[in-house]
């Protein structure tokens, strides 16, 4: 008995939907660990020891591995197939989560978090590559990316609330055990429903460039963290910045002359691609940096419990979800670039409204600002991602997704390192938090300006 056209259409829709579900779980578990871990920072510090610098490393080492390896992970998916690579990333992330849950010391926890970052680096670009493959139609792809981002937003939203509750009832180790069932479900969905992409066997790996990239990003983050404790004029801090600059220059030189670079600099000749990559970096510095700072502010300055801290973040994270869903429709009506710029300016307005915070500031005085920050971010991410993917040919979608997410995660590394250095001394925490808000506002306005360069009507 032959399958009817209607049955084929139903099967195609089911395959696409369940592929989207698997990809969304992959992105969601990556985002979940951002808010869940930040909520647990104070509890981790009390249980394992260490001050703000050690807690910065618990967060930062994850994003360093994520940012530095994501380009190679995207290229790996292009070479051997995005499905195989995505499943390997999910397995690594799940095993690393178990190691985090069992970690007896800060050093082992930091090492396991680095392994988690490797898994995250593999998951994100290959999930986008598989979505790009499953949804060839631009409008369908835009809606799928919006759903993919919304799933991550749900994870961001649930992270503080669920994490705070788990910490209060079971303890901080439970926040990593949560990833295990998510990982198993994502692996099954991908294995059963996702279609493999066409491998490019001649795609080589730029191991020299990869090594330099890890060194440059790690050195820069370590230098910024050390600057917050030892002072920006310290000789070791100055030397760290010099070494970081040299490594960045060497990386760009290497990528310019490599036969198959991990970062194809030629992509940046495309104006839309460059705009979206830069905007992604500028937006992530304030968002993830402020999550780190505000988590410590609620617990160490205003004496909130982890569960109360989770509740405090809930409105911000909840605002991201409906904004994600609205973004695709808004982009179709007004154009992607004005929607991205509007989202950045809304988030900047939220940061400005928080400049008056101090010890004992009422949470209700911060609520509207939190809603603005969350909705602004939720509005800009889907059109930014879809626009960047649409600016390159499908054969390079893995690398393009890797560049965008590398830029965004580099922003996360710099945000946590820089803002953490501002608030490194508890007696000057509020002043440092205000400095972080000023920098955040400046960067978000910069992202809006970057997006609008040469007008909104371009189709390049």
UniProtKB/TrEMBL annotation:
Quick check: keyword Zinc in the entry?
A: no
Asked whether the keyword Lipoprotein is assigned, the reply is no
User: CDD domains from the entry?
Assistant: MFS_MMR_MDR_like
The places in or outside the cell where this protein is found are: Cell membrane
Which keywords are on file for this protein?
A: Cell membrane, Membrane, Transmembrane, Transmembrane helix, Transport
Q: Which residue ranges does the record assign to the Major facilitator superfamily (MFS) profile domain?
A: 19-458
Q: What is its main location?
A: membrane
**Family statement drawn from the similarity comment of this UniProt entry:** Belongs to the major facilitator superfamily. EmrB family.
PANTHER family, alphabetized? MAJOR FACILITATOR SUPERFAMILY MULTIDRUG TRANSPORTER MFSC
Name listed for the protein in its UniProt record: MFS transporter
What organism does the record attribute this protein to? Rhizobium calliandrae
């Amino acid at each position: 008995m032959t399958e009817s056209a209607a049955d084929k259409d139903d099967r195609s829709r089911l395959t696409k939907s369940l592929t989207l579900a698997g990809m969304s779980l992959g992105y969601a578990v990556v985002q979940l660990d951002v808010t869940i871990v930040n909520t647990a920072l104070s509890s981790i510090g009390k249980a394992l020891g260490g001050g703000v610098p050690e807690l910065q490393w618990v967060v930062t080492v994850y994003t360093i591995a994520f940012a530095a390896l994501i380009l190679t992970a995207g290229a790996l998916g292009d070479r051997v197939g995005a499905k195989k690579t995505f499943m390997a990333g999910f397995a690594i992330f799940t095993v690393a989560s178990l190691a985090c849950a069992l970690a007896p010391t800060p050093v082992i926890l930091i090492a396991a978090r680095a392994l988690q970052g490797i898994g995250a680096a593999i998951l994100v670009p290959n999930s986008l590559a598989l979505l790009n493959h499953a949804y060839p139609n631009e409008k369908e792809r835009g809606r799928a990316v919006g759903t993919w981002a919304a799933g991550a937003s749900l994870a961001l939203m649930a992270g503080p609330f669920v994490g705070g509750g788990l910490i209060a009832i079971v303890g901080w180790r439970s926040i990593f055990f949560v990833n295990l069932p998510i990982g198993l479900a994502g692996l099954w969905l991908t294995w059963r429903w996702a279609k493999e992409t066409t491998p490019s066997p001649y795609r080589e790996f730029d191991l020299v460039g990869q090594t330099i990239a890890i060194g440059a990003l790690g050195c820069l983050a370590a230098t910024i963290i050390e600057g917050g404790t030892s002072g920006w004029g310290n000789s070791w801090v100055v030397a760290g910045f010099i070494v970081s600059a040299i490594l960045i220059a060497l990386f760009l030189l290497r990528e310019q002359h490599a036969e198959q670079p991990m970062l194809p600099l030629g992509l940046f000749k495309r104006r839309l691609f460059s705009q979206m990559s830069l905007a992604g970096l500028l937006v992530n510095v304030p968002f993830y940096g402020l999550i780190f700072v505000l988590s410590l502010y609620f617990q160490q300055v205003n004496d909130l419990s982890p569960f109360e801290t989770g509740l405090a973040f809930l409105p911000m994270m909840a605002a991201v979800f409906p904004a994600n869903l609205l973004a695709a429709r808004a982009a179709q009506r007004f154009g992607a670039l004005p929607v991205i710029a509007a989202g950045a300016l809304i988030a900047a307005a939220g940061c400005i409204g928080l400049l008056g915070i101090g010890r004992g500031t009422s949470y209700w005085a911060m609520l509207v600002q939190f809603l603005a920050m969350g909705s602004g971010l939720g509005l800009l991410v889907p059109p930014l991602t879809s626009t960047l993917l649409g600016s390159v040919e499908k054969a390079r979608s893995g690398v393009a997704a890797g560049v965008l997410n590398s830029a965004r995660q580099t922003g996360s590394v710099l945000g946590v390192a820089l803002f953490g250095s501002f608030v490194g001394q508890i007696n000057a925490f509020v002043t440092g938090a205000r400095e972080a808000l000023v920098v955040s506002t400046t960067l978000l306005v910069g992202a809006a300006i970057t997006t609008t360069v040469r007008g909104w009507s371009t189709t390049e």
